[in-house]
Write a structure and sequence with these properties.
Elements: H1 12-21, E1 23-26, E2 30-35, H2 47-59, E3 64-68, H3 77-94, E4 103-108, H4 111-114, H5 119-132
Parallel strand pairs: 3-4
Antiparallel strand pairs: 1-2, 2-4
Helix pairs in contact: 3-5
Length: about 140
């Protein structure tokens, strides 16, 4: 079950921005990098500012998520792809609870492949990391 296209973080520029400016939360199997949305523009009488506000609100339409899994996790692509599918399924369950506009990168640690981690463990750890980063809608 893949993430919807609107919720995928794809460009190298976006990944670099999240790694450069985002906050970090660590777990035993995963690391979460999260970059807050830019919505701190104050209203003014200038129409140029109003157009940037419109584009920013359109930009806040969806939270975009990327998954980074290195060959350090496993040399076998089959193992890396299985882990990525499990994380994607867990994120698919959590997607309605997330606040809009965030850019997230989930980084898989080598301990995930070593311990034969399964989907419920990924779901639980992702919930903890997202709560720690205050990405949930309403910070619940």
């Amino acid at each position: 079950m893949a993430l919807p296209k609107a919720n995928r973080l794809k460009s190298r520029k976006d990944f670099q921005a999240v790694f450069r400016e985002g906050i970090r939360c660590h777990g035993s199997y995963l690391t979460l990098r999260a970059l807050e949305p830019l919505c701190s523009i104050k209203p003014s009488l200038n129409t140029a500012t109003q157009t940037t506000q419109a584009t920013d609100s359109a930009h806040l339409a969806s939270t975009r998520i990327g998954i980074s899994i290195s060959t350090k996790v496993s040399k076998r692509a089959v193992v890396r792809n299985r882990i990525k599918r499990q994380i994607t399924a867990a994120l698919h369950n959590l997607l309605p609870k997330l606040s809009r506009g965030w850019r997230l990168v989930v980084i898989v640690k080598p301990t995930a492949a070593e311990s034969k981690c399964v989907s419920p463990q990924f779901l639980q750890e992702l919930e903890q990391l997202l709560a720690q980063a205050e990405v949930f809608d309403g910070n619940s």
